[in-house]
Write a structure and sequence with these properties.
5-stranded mixed β-sheet; alpha/beta; Tyrosine-protein phosphatase; Protein-Tyrosine Phosphatase, Chain A; 250 residues; Tyr_Pase_AS; 5 strands; Prot-tyrosine_phosphatase-like; Tyr_Pase_dom; 51% helix
């Protein structure tokens, strides 16, 4: 059975509540993902000295930053001996929410839900360059890698779904991993009061229908995950075989 234990998956970091290991999930041939190789996270700009000590023991080799340009500039970070690669995906929900506020339009939970679904569909159709480059990094070597955005839930959540799908992990397991954000992530206090609480819960948590919106777009717009990986992201059968060699137990 796939391991969803929070204690085994998370490292207990004080400055990154959504930092967790993708190890243990069963991929092709019932082979589990290797532990301490692939991590997903929220942003890494608030890590404490103790957090850095924990990460140094892994040891992390690479960090892929999916945050937008302004997000990365406002909360930069540097990790000793860790190569950083920026693959910016702009936070369209935040931008549209700010535009609504400036226009005097109220953000409601239904509007927020529609915005989130549109954002996930955009990942599929508008951000293939970034996700193709993400796979290029995964295929380079098996040095421990963390990929993250700001909250580690949307851009990071779709990236995690893509790599797990490419490794043959079941959709049920992928959804469980995706929803684990709601048990781990601590939203920033600064957003309190910026919108009604019911809307904030939609924007700062994850829902099954968000990821399903992306996966449905993969099916309906691109003919399924196999064709999407191959034709849009450049992940063909040989690349998937190499991914398995790098990240699945032998």
């Amino acid at each position: 059975m796939d391991d969803f234990s929070r204690t085994s998956r998370t490292l207990g970091l004080a400055g990154a509540s959504n930092f967790r290991d993708l190890g243990g999930y069963l991929g092709d041939g019932a082979r589990p993902l290797r532990w301490r190789r692939l991590f997903r996270s929220d942003h890494l700009a608030a890590l404490t000295a103790h957090d850095l000590q924990v990460l140094a023991q892994l040891p992390l080799a690479r960090a892929i930053d999916l945050r937008g340009v302004d997000e990365s500039a406002s909360q930069p970070y540097a990790l000793p001996s860790v190569r950083q690669l920026a693959l910016p995906i702009e936070p369209t929900v935040v931008q549209r929410a700010k535009a609504m506020a400036a226009a005097g339009q109220a953000m409601t939970a239904p509007i927020a839900q529609e915005l989130m679904q549109d954002t996930y569909r955009a990942f599929v159709n508008d951000n293939t360059r970034q996700f193709a480059a993400f796979f290029d990094q995964l295929l380079t070597d098996d040095g421990p890698l963390v990929f993250h955005c700001t909250a580690g839930k949307d851009r990071t959540g779709f990236a995690a779904a893509l790599v797990l799908l490419a490794l043959g992990v079941s959709r049920e397991t992928i959804m469980q991993d995706y929803l684990l954000t709601n048990a781990l992530y601590r939203r920033p206090a600064i957003v309190q009061g910026t919108a009604p609480e019911e809307a904030l819960r939609v924007i700062w948590q994850v829902q099954e229908d968000f990821l399903l919106a992306a996966l449905d777009a993969v099916e309906h717009d691109h003919g399924g995950i196999e064709r999407y990986l191959r034709q849009r992201l450049g992940v063909d059968a040989a690349a998937r075989q190499r991914l398995a060699q790098l990240y699945l137990e032998r």
